[in-house]
Design a protein that fits this description.
It is built from ten helices and 19 strands. The protein is α+β, with helices and mostly antiparallel strands. The protein has two domains: 74 residues, no CATH class; 316 residues, no CATH class. Strands 3, 4, 5, 6, 7, 14, 17, 18 and 19 form a nine-stranded mixed beta sheet that branches. Helix 2 crosses helix 3 and helix 4 crosses helix 6. The radius of gyration is 37 Å and the shape is elongated.
Length: 464
């Protein structure tokens, strides 16, 4: 009995020593594989080890052997595993050449989409982890290829056959030497200031949207349209549109951007480098920006939120000195028009003014005190614009971002939808006429001519 117990204790001791202090040159067998697998899960995957058990096991097998896999797993992305194809691995190597900046006043700025994805997830807006990472790789690839000064993920617009992923950026030294007179140049304040790339398949290919005209933007306001997913398709609508789906898509993106993208009021300031017509119309990032407190940002009256981009006038222009009622460049969203909503029941029912902007707070509302610092709250502020369903702005601890996920059309637009004519009935069947069955006076029956009278009439007619 003692000898068996000693052997058992010795075997157990050997197994524990293998888990705690594995040798550098491991012999691949079941026990060593399990030891490495358990160690990997305990050290790096305590939360998601069960969900990614198979992927971690394949990674350990590849590391311990010279096994070649068709899809090689890339080990860690925020402590989660993502399987990438060979094409995606190549893009990953290219994108590693550039670093992510943390402020907007430096060149080669790229939105930290993975950090923003964590905040968006608190608000219930989320792609899967693999998709977020592929979006980030695509952004870095476009940043390198086009030498962008600024790039961010705009969002996703649904289509009938396929959806559009959209990336927004400013291209440095865009090759547009002789632009048409009716088209605004890239990089300057206007509807063609930004460059947009769209794709229905991440990491495959990205198509650059063309420039648009003021006439196209004005026409896009006259109807609603569900996109097909084909950029070259003809826009089929009751109102003629002067362009293809790619032009209409750009128009809707610009309208969403200028009406629903918001920032804290002290995030940007008016630029002092412009005079005459552009004075007070151009803004720039405020280098002295300091995030406001949680209580100030969650104000239900939206006193500390402004529009990030300028108002687009009815003629489709952003800057137009000929317009009498000029809109303030740093306009607060609290000044936006609302709608009337009925409250109460019966005779007590009244109409009140309501806003299209809605705000809610999710997460931990507790305020935590840190020595030598201001109190901090880890809750997330989520703001939506019901005028454009699908627009989202989230804020947490001074970090914020805007995102759009929807069908790309405005709610409550004035649209012309002609109704279909009703079916025209056939002519009714003629009714057979009958004499009155019970007349008040007996009808006079006409007397027929006799044979002699008929002969006389015929003779008279002959003589004539």
């Amino acid at each position: 009995m003692k000898s068996n117990q000693q052997k058992h204790n010795k075997l157990k001791h050997n197994q524990n020593s293998q888990i705690q202090k594995p040798t550098k040159k491991l012999i691949y067998d079941d026990i060593n594989h399990l030891n490495e697998l358990i160690k990997e899960i305990v050290s790096l995957h305590k939360e998601d080890g069960y969900d990614n058990f198979e992927e971690i096991s394949m990674y350990i097998k590849k590391k311990m052997t010279k096994l070649t896999l068709e899809y090689e797993p890339y080990p860690y992305i925020h402590k989660k595993l993502v399987i990438l194809t060979s094409k995606e691995e190549k893009i990953l190597q290219e994108s590693s050449k550039i670093k992510v900046a943390k402020t907007k006043n430096v060149q080669n700025y790229m939105e930290d989409i993975l950090s923003h994805a964590t905040i968006l997830e608190w608000a219930g807006i989320n792609f899967n982890q693999t998709e977020w990472y592929k979006i980030r790789l695509s952004m870095k690839k476009l940043l390198i290829e086009n030498k962008c000064e600024y790039i961010r993920f705009f969002g996703k617009i649904y289509g009938i056959n396929s959806d559009y992923y959209i990336i927004q950026g400013i291209v440095k030294d865009y090759p547009m030497k002789n632009p048409p007179k009716h088209v605004e140049t890239r990089g300057n304040e206007g509807i063609n200031r930004f460059t947009f790339w769209v794709s229905d398949s991440l990491l495959e290919y990205w198509n650059e949207l063309p420039d648009i005209t003021h006439e196209q933007l004005v026409a896009s306001r006259l109807f609603k349209y569900i996109f097909t997913g084909d950029l070259n398709s003809k826009v089929k609508s009751f109102v003629p549109f002067p362009g293809k789906e790619m032009h209409l898509l750009k128009c809707q993106i610009i309208r969403i951007l200028h009406s629903s993208s918001i920032v804290p009021k002290n995030f940007q300031k008016l630029s002092e480098n412009y005079k005459d017509q552009l004075e007070g119309k151009i803004v720039e990032y405020d280098e002295e920006y300091k995030p406001l407190s949680f209580e100030e940002m969650k104000d239900p009256e939206f006193a500390n939120w402004i529009h990030e981009y300028a108002y687009i006038y009815p003629n489709g222009k952003v800057i137009d000195p000929s317009v009498e009622n000029q809109i303030e460049r740093m306009k607060g969203i609290a000044e936006d028009e609302g709608y009337k909503m009925k409250e109460g029941e019966g005779e007590e029912q009244t109409e009140v003014e309501a806003k299209f902007w809605k705000i809610k707070v999710v997460g931990d509302l507790m305020s935590y005190t840190i020595p030598d610092k201001e109190p901090i709250t880890h809750a997330v502020i989520h703001i939506v614009n019901e005028r454009w369903p699908g627009t989202h702005c989230v804020w947490k601890e001074g970090v914020f971002c805007n995102l759009y996920i929807g069908f790309g059309y405005k709610d409550a637009d004035e649209c012309f939808y002609p109704t279909q004519l009703t079916k025209v009935d056939n002519d009714p069947i003629d009714v057979t006429e009958h004499a009155e069955p019970n007349p008040e006076k007996e009808p006079v029956v006409p007397e027929h001519d006799s044979d002699e009278e008929k002969k006389k009439e015929e003779e008279e007619n002959n003589e004539e």
